[in-house]
């Protein structure tokens, strides 16, 4: 399979290629047992490089049939070939190179390149999947104009799609069908796509701001045609939003989305032909939860926004991945904030950063937003590249202001349209458009790890001054120590005793941006003086989660309670509540927890406060997850965390039962279901209330059963099912799980949710139980969604079982990794995440986790993907 020790590649070694490919003409002939690919490449020497006359193309698992140069077929001795490449020497300025090869999509289980999903063919080429289709310069700085012909049996594959605009469709003399596509925008091979199938289409149009009409099409397998409305609507809203917010419009006559069941990731932004994991695009009220609707809206937007941030302006090399991903996540987050609640979106983002990204930063796979090396690029589609990358873009907006940021984005798109560029071309555009120097800020891209800010304050009543001293430090990460201070935008406010924001004047004045209420921390230690502070303020620090940092700031429980009630910054209201709850959970771990009445009455009042957005109240009343608590612990003891959280949850539920019941009743609605923000918000709180209520009383439990039976939508049905599971009434839960499966066994996406709630539940998911799910008829190792629904949910959510003290949870995960290593290395490597954190756990667990990593390491034929993660984890 692979070398025993695959090599890393380094950013510092980047060089331009010796040749460009101006035009790429591809012909695919799909037949049952193989596919024939003919690639005609117009290559031209790169004048920036010495004239080597040498061209090495990448290729993997290809059966080479012939190579011709300018129409003359080469004999075997005239080129060199190995497992990963094809090399030609003695080339001149320009040539037409024609390569024919055979591939076997029906045996492709890695789901990279061209593969079969159900009855259809589809592709996934990012990052390096195109080399599994034909020999090519499979690197993002080689941008080419593509023409594609797809030939197949027209009866079985009436729909034949590729990038760009359709140019011809014909019936061949042998009865096969041929469809031809041309994409006028040059693009790297990772944006290539092909789809063939017997698909149905949902269609609409969109008129761009310049008045062009674009055809929109969503292709699905016939049984899913009633699940396309929402994605189509989200697409139109995304197109409009990008015009309004960034002044960017769509640039082809047609935009297509295809839903496929077997897909390694969420979705892919192939030019004009986005391919989606069906779970990220298909929805109707009966089968999709509100959370699924929101995810669909965000992902449809994300992939659409890539048309500019990624496709029109792409990455020079894969070390620049965050150039497109960080920026595009930032864009989809802004879109979701505009469509729904900005505060709630910010809370969700911070939760993800604090649980998953901070954990990545503190583990063996920690890497900068712009990494300097990798073994397998697929391992770098991470929360650091995506979400921290987005945070780094967001901080630039905080620093430059909304208008300055927009000017920078305009300059970036205009200056680099049609180019493959680096992250520093992005920051340069921000600098040039604003006349600022971001040198210091750019450290965010090069230094891995989560900076920690320590806050101390001193109030002087006589002088009406507040002194705030901030220190920052960033822990060592693999390959990086002694980090330099970062430029950290700290948004903050000072609350007076009425809970009102006080006016702020700071010294040095240059450290304060009034428009965004941001204090600029740029040194290892800095003291800021606030003047005219007429009374001792309560400090609201790092409002809106203005930087992805950890904060150490002693504030009393009274102050936290005060912030929870009064802060004008919704994010910090939530954060104060979480800090309060973390305090309780720590008390519980120390065996000295008691719920205090003052806090309970504040939570009661929040529940009753009809002026608040119910979704916001839902978050205010939700305890931090076990993963979140773990990230705020020095040595992680998963069982202790689980026990402590349960104890606090139980106490809170008991104290709030009647308010929860009342809240539930108040939010009952007889409006027909719609996936629309106000309704979703109300359902979120209603179902949170049901969960608490059902855990405490027979009436609540009764209500959950009634809601399960009466629900006309998946949000309510699933919430009722979860309430029944969490009530701990095991046989009752099992009864409803069986009913649910009866009702939904024909719907793959619903069955996956059913698998996932069970595998992720503390009440059910013992190792034995999860093993039985793996044997269930609904499970399939070849389908990534199912693997994630069972193994992913188990290791990521059912922490008290995954961390079973006998190590059997770790063994189950390691067995899954070993099994998938050969068939789908990307998924295998991704599943490893939880085991890589072993050093953070108390030794009792860490040792057992390490032993499983060592067992994986000892397997023969480790894929690059798995090898990289395991070897780095064992260092
Ligand atoms: N560019 C895609 C997206 O974020 C993800 C592609 C992931 N591919 C992979 N091989 N990991 O929108
Ligand atoms: Zn993306």
UniProtKB/TrEMBL annotation:
Which part of the chain is the Peptidase M1 membrane alanine aminopeptidase domain?
230-444
Keyword list (alphabetical) reads: Aminopeptidase, Hydrolase, Metal-binding, Metalloprotease, Protease, Zinc
What this protein catalyses is: Release of an N-terminal amino acid, Xaa-|-Yaa- from a peptide, amide or arylamide. Xaa is preferably Ala, but may be most amino acids including Pro (slow action). When a terminal hydrophobic residue is followed by a prolyl residue, the two may be released as an intact Xaa-Pro dipeptide
SUPFAM superfamilies hit by this protein: Leukotriene A4 hydrolase N-terminal domain, Metalloproteases ('zincins'), catalytic domain
Per its UniProt entry, what is the enzyme's top EC class, as one word? hydrolase
Which Enzyme Commission numbers does its entry carry? 3.4.11.2
Looking at the record, the residues that make up the Aminopeptidase N-like N-terminal domain are 23-191
Cofactor(s) named in the record: Zn(2+)
The entry assigns this protein to a family as follows:
Belongs to the peptidase M1 family.
Listed name of the protein: Aminopeptidase N
Gene coding for it: pepN
């Amino acid at each position: 399979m692979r070398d025993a020790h695959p090599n890393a590649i380094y950013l510092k070694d980047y060089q331009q290629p010796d040749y460009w490919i101006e035009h790429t003409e591809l012909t695919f002939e799909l037949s049952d047992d193989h596919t024939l690919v003919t690639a005609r490449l117009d290559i031209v020497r790169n004048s920036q490089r010495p004239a080597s006359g040498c061209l090495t193309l990448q290729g993997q698992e290809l059966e080479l049939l012939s190579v011709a140069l300018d129409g003359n077929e080469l004999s075997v001795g005239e080129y060199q070939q190995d497992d990963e490449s094809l090399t030609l020497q003695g080339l001149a300025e320009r040539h037409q190179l024609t390569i024919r090869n055979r591939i076997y999509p029906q045996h492709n289980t890695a789901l990279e390149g061209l593969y079969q999903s159900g009855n259809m063919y589809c592709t996934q080429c990012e990052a390096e999947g195109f080399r599994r289709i034909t020999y090519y310069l499979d690197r993002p700085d080689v941008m080419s104009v593509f023409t594609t012909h797809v030939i197949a049996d027209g009866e079985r594959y009436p729909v034949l799609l590729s990038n760009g605009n359709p140019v011809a469709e014909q019936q061949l003399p042998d009865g096969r069908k041929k469809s031809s596509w041309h994409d006028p925008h040059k693009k790297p091979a990772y944006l290539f796509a092909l789809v063939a199938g017997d698909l149905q289409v949902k269609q609409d149009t969109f008129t761009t701001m310049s008045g062009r009409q674009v055809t929109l099409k969503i292709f699905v397998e016939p049984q899913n045609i009633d699940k396309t409305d929402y994605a189509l609507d989200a697409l139109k809203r995304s197109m409009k939003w990008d015009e309004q917010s960034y002044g960017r419009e769509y640039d082809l006559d047609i935009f297509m989305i295809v839903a496929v069941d077997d897909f390694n990731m969420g979705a892919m932004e192939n030019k004009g032909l986005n391919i989606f994991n069906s779970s990220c695009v298909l929805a109707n009220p009966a089968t999709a939860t509100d959370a699924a609707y929101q995810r669909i809206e965000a992902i449809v937007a994300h992939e659409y926004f890539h048309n500019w941030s990624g496709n029109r302006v792409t990455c020079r090399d894969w070390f620049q991945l965050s150039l497109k991903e960080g920026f595009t996540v930032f864009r989809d987050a802004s879109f979701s904030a505009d469509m729904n609640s900005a505060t709630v979106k910010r809370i969700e983002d911070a939760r993800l950063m604090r649980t998953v990204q901070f954990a990545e930063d503190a583990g063996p796979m920690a890497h900068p937003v712009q990494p300097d090396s990798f073994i397998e690029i697929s391992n770098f589609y991470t929360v650091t590249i995506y979400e921290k990358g987005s945070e780094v873009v967001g901080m630039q907006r905080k620093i430059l202001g909304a208008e300055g940021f927009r000017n920078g984005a305009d300059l970036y798109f205009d200056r680099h349209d049609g180019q493959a560029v680096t992250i520093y071309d992005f920051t340069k555009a921000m600098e040039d458009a604003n006349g600022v120097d971001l040198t210091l800020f750019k450290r965010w891209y090069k230094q891995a790890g989560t900076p920690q800010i320590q806050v101390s304050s001193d109030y002087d009543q006589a002088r009406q001054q507040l002194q705030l001293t901030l220190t920052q430090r960033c822990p060592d990460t693999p390959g990086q120590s002694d980090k330099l201070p970062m430029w950290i935008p700290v948004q903050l406010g000072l609350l007076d005793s009425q809970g009102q924001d006080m006016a702020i004047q700071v010294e040095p004045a240059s450290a304060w941006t009034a428009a965004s209420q941001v204090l600029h921390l740029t040194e290892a230690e800095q003291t800021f003086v606030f003047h005219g502070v007429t009374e001792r303020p309560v400090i609201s620090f790092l409002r809106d989660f203005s930087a992805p940092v950890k904060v150490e700031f002693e504030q009393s429980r009274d102050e936290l309670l005060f912030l929870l009630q009064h802060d004008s910054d919704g994010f910090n209201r939530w954060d104060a509540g979480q800090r309060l709850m973390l305090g309780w959970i720590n008390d519980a771990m120390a065996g000295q927890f008691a719920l205090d009445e003052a806090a309970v009455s504040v939570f009661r009042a929040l529940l009753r406060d009809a002026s608040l957005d119910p979704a916001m109240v839902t978050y205010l009343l939700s305890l931090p997850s076990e993963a979140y608590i773990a990230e705020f612990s020095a040595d992680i003891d998963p069982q202790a965390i689980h026990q402590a959280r349960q104890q606090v949850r139980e106490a809170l539920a008991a104290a709030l039962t009647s308010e929860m019941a009342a809240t539930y009743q108040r939010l009952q609605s007889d409006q027909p279901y719609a996936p629309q923000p106000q309704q979703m918000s109300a359902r979120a709180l209603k179902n949170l209330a049901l969960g608490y209520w059902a855990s405490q009383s027979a009436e609540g439990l009764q209500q959950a059963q009634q809601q399960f039976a009466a629900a006309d939508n998946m949000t309510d049905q699933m919430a009722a099912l979860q309430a029944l599971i969490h009530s701990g009434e095991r046989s009752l839960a099992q009864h409803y799980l069986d009913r649910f499966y009866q009702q939904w066994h024909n719907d793959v996406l619903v069955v996956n949710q059913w698998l996932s709630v069970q595998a992720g539940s503390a009440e059910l998911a013992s190792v034995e139980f999860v093993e039985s799910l793996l044997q269930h008829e609904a499970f399939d190792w070849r389908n990534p969604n199912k693997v994630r629904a069972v193994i992913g949910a188990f290791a990521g959510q059912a922490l008290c079982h995954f961390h079973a003290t006998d190590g059997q949870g770790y063994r189950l995960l390691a067995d899954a990794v070993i099994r998938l290593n050969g068939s789908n290395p990307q998924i295998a490597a991704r599943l490893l995440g939880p085991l890589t954190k072993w050093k953070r756990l108390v030794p009792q667990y860490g040792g057992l986790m390490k032993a499983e990593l060592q067992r994986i390491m000892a397997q023969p034929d480790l894929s690059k993907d798995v090898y990289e993660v395991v070897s780095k984890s064992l260092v």
